[in-house]
Amino acid sequence: TVIGFNPNASDEFDGWDTEKKFANGDNYPQLYTKTNSGEELAVNFQRKRNEVFTIPVYFSTPNFGQHTIQASDFTSMGSVGVFLEDLHEDKLVYLNVTPEYTFESMVTEEEPRFILHIYPLSATSVVGIVSGVNVYAFNKSVYIQLQELPDDGFVTVYDALGRAVASDNVVKNSLNRIEIKDASGWYVVKL
Length: 191
What we know:
mainly beta
């Protein structure tokens, strides 16, 4: 699977994308993305964004075993950070630093096994005196990356009524995920 950026690309299937052609035979794992309307893509070009966004990545395999994803050519993507989240193993891998990820898989059908979290390295979504902190929400979880802080930290998430709904330790130089059960509405993240 190839993911790239082009200012003329869209979130739907267009001339920059390539439709997924599934390999014939019983021994080939498949890795691909989908458009919002469900087209399966082997090559998925996105327009470059100034905010964090995510791309679900689908994986299927006819055989149990070990598989490896190799990320490359980050220079062509510009100044973005890319995290791979393994939904089955509950792991986050910063592909810019560790571009190879090996995982075990049972025989699977079409399912979103991974999520790519892509964010501009120069952006911060924190208002105030703290720089080098990125915070965003996706799929009932809050994601926090601490880039420039000298130490690990502690985060508390509050709902709109000021009640603490989640808290956890966070580790610097990694993407931290805090799950918010029954999430809906506005939240405040305190570091």
